[in-house]
């Protein structure tokens, strides 16, 4: 016992002096101002407790007021520089692969798979990223994906009556769409059972930072194995099938890169993961923000009723020119992405000492570029914390896109799904608004800013709208 205690004592003395030594080295560099907090835990506890409140940026707000938009903290076991400065964020995004690279904890890598696009670096990343961009670019959406987006959304809305759990429905739609786009799988028993496993995988991403003690995480890893097995079977079948297919799996196999089954499966899982919570959350939050902003909802209704009226048939498919004519909808989409900030920012690691804005960030440090802190800053957006789609009408903020407004990131890791997500949300709003009126069910209110993962499902009561004289 005594020897255990003295061991403990030395360990503590040793690590505290190491901590102080490192701190004095950092003092010689001109680090961004801030506090490294306590040894080891740093300011992690403050970060976690801050996000339990409803203020969207409590942790960053407080430190920004004290130190300015670039500051040093210490979270999740590492010193980390936070940036709420638009130019610095841009610099970080554009220098991906040169001065910064992505960095995820090992627990996340295990869930994603080692060949995931999100973890790839260097020339392989470049190749895979451009392939992914070409699978979901506007030409492909227009010529192939739009029909299925519209059809699957309509199919799901057909069964809506009375009380609908909006978030659940949005997730179902998003999953079905991705399965269709990836491998032409139509919704059915197989996709539903895969989705059940897949939901457990997703749960695993939210167990940080207690991953290794977590039963949820272990279950997620098992579920990932099952999902990967099911997808591997699909890939194998496809290898023996010569019919050309116009889905992402077909394009991947036809690319001439000779990807292994494992690479292809990890690729598909990456797309499922990256598009799922993100797209379904903006679908839900757009409806929530509109419900709370009746003027915006009325204007949107007018836009979509007009489109339906011009088509003359209440069920006629949404075409690309319809999407392109949804001017106010695009304002609503932009504003939803700005206020909701599903991906609040991105973590990177410095590959070398970085000099920026008069500060030095040491090599090997973590940086966090916060998009939310910029989107929510009244210096950059007037009444920044209010949902106001009209602010996009004269395109004033869009005059400098990518600097102040970056819901999809930018640079070499720009989200390949940026157009797809916009189209899915627009078509969803079109079908929802032309078919239903709704009101939120009284209980279960979704918090305004989903700063932590919200378990809320946002139930609404829907009523079918009377069809107008255009019905044929
Ligand atoms: C509202 C919906 C979405 C938002 C807000 C969003 C946001 C983002 C952001 C900010 C990044 C950059 C991450 C980084 O720089 O480290 C990203 C990457 C990515 N997104 Fe999205 N995304 C959305 C929907 C989608 C969809 C529908 C797909 C499916 C095609 C998708 C696929 C990806 C992939 C594969 C990456 C990784 C790119 C890379 O690392 O090279 N996303 N997304
Ligand atoms: C989209 O990608 C396809 C290949 O998948 C390519 O032929 C087409 O030119 C691309 N369109 C745009 C607008 O980049
Ligand atoms: C494709 O990759 C497999 C292994 O992944 C290899 O055995 C095969 O020779 C490769 N084929 C070509 C044409 O490169
Ligand atoms: C929405 O934001 C994008 C930048 O992501 C911009 O290019 C586009 O013009 C904006 N749309 C409107 C209607 O302002
Ligand atoms: C947009 O511009 C028009 C005329 O140029 C003006 O009447 C309107 O108030 C402006 N809207 C916003 C939100 O600035």
UniProtKB/TrEMBL annotation:
Subcellular location: Membrane
Name the UniProt record assigns to this protein: Cytochrome P450
Pathway(s) where this gene product acts: Steroid biosynthesis; Plant hormone biosynthesis; brassinosteroid biosynthesis; Hormone biosynthesis
CDD domains: CYP90-like (cd11043)
PROSITE patterns in UniProt: CYTOCHROME_P450 (PS00086)
Signal peptide range in chain numbering: none
Gene3D superfamilies xrefs: Cytochrome P450
Organism taxonomic ancestry: Eukaryota, Viridiplantae, Streptophyta, Embryophyta, Tracheophyta
Domain of life: Eukaryota
GO BP term, pick one: brassinosteroid homeostasis
Protein's membrane topology: Single-pass membrane protein
UniProt source species: Acacia crassicarpa
Keyword Transcription (UniProt): no
Family: Belongs to the cytochrome P450 family.
Keyword Iron: yes
């Amino acid at each position: 016992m005594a020897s255990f205690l003295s061991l403990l004592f030395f360990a503590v003395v040793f690590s505290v002096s190491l901590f102080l030594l490192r701190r004095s080295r950092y003092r010689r560099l001109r680090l961004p101002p801030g506090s490294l907090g306590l040894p080891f835990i740093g300011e992690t506890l403050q970060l976690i407790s801050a996000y339990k409140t409803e203020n969207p940026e409590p942790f960053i707000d407080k430190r920004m007021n004290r130190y300015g938009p670039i500051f040093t903290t210490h979270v999740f076991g590492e010193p980390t520089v936070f940036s709420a400065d638009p130019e610095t964020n841009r610099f970080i995004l554009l220098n991906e692969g040169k001065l910064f690279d992505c960095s995820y904890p090992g627990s996340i890598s295990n869930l994603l798979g080692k060949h995931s696009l999100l973890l790839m670096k260097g020339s392989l990343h470049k190749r895979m990223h451009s392939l992914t961009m070409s699978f979901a670019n506007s030409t492909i959406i227009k010529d192939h994906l739009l029909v299925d987006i519209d059809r699957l959304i309509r199919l799901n809305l057909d069964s809506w009556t009375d009380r609908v759990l909006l978030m659940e429905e949005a997730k179902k739609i998003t999953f079905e769409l991705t399965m269709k786009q990836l491998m032409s799988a139509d919704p059915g028993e197989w996709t539903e059972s895969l989705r059940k496993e897949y939901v457990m995988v997703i749960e695993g991403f939210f167990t940080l930072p207690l991953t290794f003690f977590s039963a949820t995480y272990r279950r997620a890893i098992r579920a990932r194995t099952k999902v990967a097995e099911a997808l591997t079977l699909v890939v194998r079948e496809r290898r023996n099938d010569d019919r050309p297919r116009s889905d992402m799996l077909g394009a991947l196999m036809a690319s001439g890169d000779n990807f292994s089954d494992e690479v292809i499966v990890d690729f598909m899982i990456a797309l499922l993961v990256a598009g799922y919570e993100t797209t379904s959350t903006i679908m839900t939050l757009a409806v929530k923000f509109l419900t709370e902003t009746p003027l915006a909802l009325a204007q949107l209704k007018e836009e979509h009723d007009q489109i339906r009226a011009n088509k003359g048939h209440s069920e006629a498919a949404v075409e690309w020119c319809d999407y392109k004519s949804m001017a106010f909808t695009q304002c609503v989409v932009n504003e939803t992405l700005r206020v909701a900030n599903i991906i609040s920012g991105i973590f990177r690691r410095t590959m070398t000492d970085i000099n920026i804005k008069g500060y030095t960030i040491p090599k090997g440090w973590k940086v966090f570029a916060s998009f939310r802190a910029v989107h929510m800053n009244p210096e950059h957006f007037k009444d920044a914390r209010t949902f106001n789609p009209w602010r996009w009408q004269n395109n004033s903020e869009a005059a400098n896109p990518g600097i102040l407004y970056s819901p999809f990131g930018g640079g070499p890791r720009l989200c390949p799904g940026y157009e797809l997500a916009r189209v899915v949300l627009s078509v969803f709003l079109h079908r929802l608004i032309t078919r239903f009126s709704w009101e939120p069910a009284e209980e279960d209110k979704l918090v305004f800013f989903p700063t932590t993962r919200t378990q809320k499902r946002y139930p609404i009561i829907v009523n079918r709208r009377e069809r107008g004289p255009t019905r044929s």
